[in-house]
């Protein structure tokens, strides 16, 4: 009898608590705050950021978006620039022509070789120099300026400089043959594909190290000194501190530098045009120099636009793939 009474009381309490909960849930919610009226002063306040963005967006649309859309349109036509001439729609013929063109694949291969030969040295040497310049010394600002000076130097100037350095009677041959006696004869650097690519890649590495150095140097400034001090107290040597403290700290900068250098490597143009002109016989052409030749030498703007669109899609896909790869790796490390 006592157990039945206890159960009944428990059931009654449960019913009371349930009814109380329902009454609380059924109670009216507090009224929402009324929205502020969109007065003229508030509208002006909200529009200020967009007014600041408007000039930049206008330039971006006019200089980037509109030419890109125009190039995409031209790639589907046998585009004529002569006044009154009719541009004939050819569909995907220009793209089919590109994929069946051996010289396009050669130029794409040269672009890939340039990217693979220039990106790793710029990352490794840039990080190494940034690590050295992180230490405070009286000569630190001077070395920063010296390493960054090639970055701000005109591509035209340094391309012509390297063209003369690697000429048959240039400084490179003089140093290697006449001064150091490392070669039995002078090398005609710009007359064959392999040696010409060496000269172009050397120019790309020399000019780009300073940029990656500055990015890594900025990232290193944010590494707390307490982490390195703690690693030192734990008995870690210099290499162990670099691998366990410095590298993880600059990993976001490494992702940024890698993506930007890959994009820049595939878009190499000025150095090839001025150092070799795509020669000999087009053997050092890259995609952009081949596109330039087709569009502005042979006036085949439809085919040149198709080459530009293919390169843009390739660069976009590689950039997305790199970002996902780095993101997955960072997720695995955190796990």
Keyphrases for this structure?
MetI-like fold, two-stranded antiparallel sheet, single chain, flat, 1% strand, disordered N terminus, 14 helices, mainly alpha, 335 residues
Q: Tell me which CATH architecture of the domain at 101-162 and 188-334 applies here.
A: Orthogonal Bundle
Predict the CATH topology of the domain at 101-162 and 188-334: MetI-like fold
Number of helices, where a helix is a run of at least 4 consecutive DSSP H or I residues: 14
Instruction: Name the helicity range.
Output: over 70%
In total, the number of strands is 2
Order of helices and strands: HHEEHHHHHHHHHHHH
Provide the spatial order of strands within the biggest beta sheet: 1-2
Shape: flat
Uncertain spans: 1-11
Explain how this protein is built.
This protein is mainly α and 335 residues long. The chain has a domain at 101-162 and 188-334: MetI-like fold. It contains 14 helices and 2 strands; from the N terminus they run ααββαααααααααααα. The chain has helices spanning 2-26, 40-74, 93-99, 102-133, 140-152, 155-165, 171-179, 193-221, 225-233, 238-249, 251-266, 270-275, 287-297, 301-334, and strands at 77-78, 88-89. The chain has a two-stranded antiparallel sheet with strand order 1-2. α5 (140-152) packs across α8 (193-221), α8 (193-221) runs antiparallel to α11 (251-266) and α9 runs antiparallel to α10 (238-249). The longest helix is centred in the N-terminal third of the chain and has 35 residues, at 40-74. The relative contact order is 0.11.
């Amino acid at each position: 009898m006592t157990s039945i009474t206890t159960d009944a009381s428990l059931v009654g309490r449960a019913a009371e608590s349930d009814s109380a909960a329902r009454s609380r849930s059924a109670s009216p919610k507090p009224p929402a705050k009324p929205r502020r009226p969109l007065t003229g002063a508030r509208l002006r306040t909200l529009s200020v950021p967009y007014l600041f963005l408007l000039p930049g967006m206008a330039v971006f649309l006019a200089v980037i978006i509109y030419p890109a859309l125009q190039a995409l349109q031209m790639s589907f036509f046998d585009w004529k620039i002569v006044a009154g001439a009719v541009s004939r729609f050819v569909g995907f013929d220009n793209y089919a022509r590109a994929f069946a063109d051996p010289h396009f694949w050669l130029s794409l291969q040269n672009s890939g070789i340039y990217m693979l030969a220039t990106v790793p040295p710029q990352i490794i040497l840039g990080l190494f120099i940034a690590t050295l310049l992180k230490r405070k010394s009286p000569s630190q600002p001077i070395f920063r300026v010296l390493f960054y000076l090639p970055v701000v130097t005109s591509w035209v100037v340094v391309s012509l400089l390297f063209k003369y350095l690697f000429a048959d009677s240039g400084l490179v041959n003089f140093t290697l043959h006449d001064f150091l006696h490392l070669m039995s004869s002078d090398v005609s650097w710009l007359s064959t594909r392999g040696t010409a690519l060496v000269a172009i890649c050397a120019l790309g590495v020399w000019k780009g190290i300073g940029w990656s150095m500055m990015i890594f140097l900025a990232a290193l400034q944010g590494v707390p000194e307490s982490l390195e001090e703690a690693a030192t107290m734990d008995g870690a040597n210099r290499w162990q501190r670099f691998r366990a403290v410095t590298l993880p700290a600059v990993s976001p900068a490494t992702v940024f530098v890698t993506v930007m250098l890959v994009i820049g490597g595939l878009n190499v143009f000025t150095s090839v045009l001025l150092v070799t002109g795509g020669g000999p016989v087009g053997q050092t052409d890259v995609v952009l120099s081949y596109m330039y030749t087709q569009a502005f030498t042979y006036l085949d703007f439809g085919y040149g636009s198709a080459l530009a669109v293919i390169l843009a899609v390739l660069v976009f896909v590689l950039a997305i793939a790199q970002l996902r790869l780095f993101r997955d790796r960072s997720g695995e490390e955190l796990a």
